[in-house]
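Internal QA ticket QA-208
Title: Verify multi-chain structure generation after dependency bump
Assignee: T.L.

Test input:
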Amino acid sequence: MSGFRTLFYKEVLRFWKVATQTVAAPVLTALLYLLIFSHVLESHVRVYGTVSYTAFLVPGLVMMSVLQNAFANSSSSLIQSKVTGNIIFVLLPPISYREFYAAYVLAAVVRGLVVGLGVLVATIWFAPLEVDNPLWVLAFAVLGGGMLGSLGVVAGIWADKFDQLAAFQNFLIMPLTFLSGVFYSIHSLPPFWQRLSHFNPVFYMIDGFRHGFFGVSDVSPWLSLGIVGACFALLCMLTLFMLERGYKLRN
Amino acid sequence: MTPAISVHQVAKRFGAVEALAGVDLVVAEGEFFGLLGPNGAGKTTLISALAGLVRVDGGRIEVMGCDVVEDYRNARRQLGVVPQELVFDPFFSVRETLRIQSGYFGIRGNEDWIDEILENLDLTSKANANMRTLSGGMKRRVLVAQALVHRPPVIVLDEPTAGVDVELRQTLWQFIRRLNRDGHTIVLTTHYLEEAESLCGRIAMLKAGRVVALDSTANLLRRFSSHALRLRLGPGAALPPSAALRATEKDGVWSLAFDRFEEIEPILAELRAAGCSLEDLEIGKPDLEEVFIRVMHGLQGERGS
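Actual output:
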């Protein structure tokens, strides 16, 4: 177990040592989104009848930050270690593939939560914070962070070069998060796009997360929890399978 | 006694390339063992397989009796590997690096041993320096230190002195020799044959994924090499035909092999009788480089046969 603990600690220390880049920068980005979009849309849009646009946007931005940073943490750590070769330091010790997986994903969740909390605190001055049910908030943040952290492990192991990882990020992660209802309720979309959104697992993460704040959402939080949980379990199995086989790491 | 390393019929392919073609090797506990071979011979693949960095296609490998696949946790605890590439984690200082590496092996509170390693590798003054700021030689020392944090009984060094200055090489070998005296088994790959000759008790030579020679260093030198009489002739002089037949020439220096020193006198007498004038004469000792070249060119037999 202690191999896992050290690897987890090392992964947290790694992003914490460069917190300006890994925590402060994404918080600022989210804040800029909030300033611009709320300036443009605040007076035009109301959601769920009563919720102001700025208040609606905040949880979306928080969750988007959690997801993107969880992905960034595991994927960039792995690709850096692979490219520089220092991945060997974690492959030589008696660390099992399950410990390896748990350490990277858990550190990714921690980074996601730290950034998410940062965004929440930074935006507190722009919209009154109300939390209907903190358990939903926490459940979706952890599950979503875990899922994207896991996806980051897959991407970090699969990619041989930084541009391949960037492609993964730009062509998969960004569209999935941006088209998931961070900036809008999908009920405002044309029917085709609304149906399409239901195939995006990130939509359920954002929607369930938001339910924790407002007590209302586009779909039932239980449905969201089921779908996010199932997707996470599936991805978890895939990643563990890759690691067990030593795909690209032990070959 | 359980051997330190036992490699049985190990095979590994990378696509069309046969990196290891059924390697058998046993290294006893306490040995200082050399693994030699040209680039691409399979040395690094073999070491990677030993360390669990590469999965082999066939055969089995044990470290101190622990299978490197089935009992990988124990096998890896027995093994310290100094990798060939100069790798480091730029986020951490030397001490942090060593603490983290100890933690990976489940060791906490390893400060005393870490201090001792730092001292022995002349790294104490750099303990709190970030890895990025170290010179190449210093980074190499940290790699050695990292391989030792868990006090492994078996230590593998994959070309540890490539690109390292003379002073460090001396420090490093002194330390490694001491570890060997203390009972650690050492496996070394190197391009510097004189290093292998002076350090290793036994040597395996690899070529195209096969062991082509495996013997004690002394035996290899005896079997494949010999003393040589090296001559530089005076202007216009030529070797008498009988001597020329058994001599080889390189850059104007003739070289005649012999086993016993009594053989020298008749050769010189022959030269004198032929009126052959000499400019320079020296007696060369057998050396591993000659052995290496002969083995790699497939000269399997005894000298002269």
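Spot checks passed. Chain A touches chain B at residues 2-3, 5-7, 9-10, 13-14, 17-18, 81, 84-86, 88-96, 246, 250-251 (CB under 8 Å).
Status: verified.
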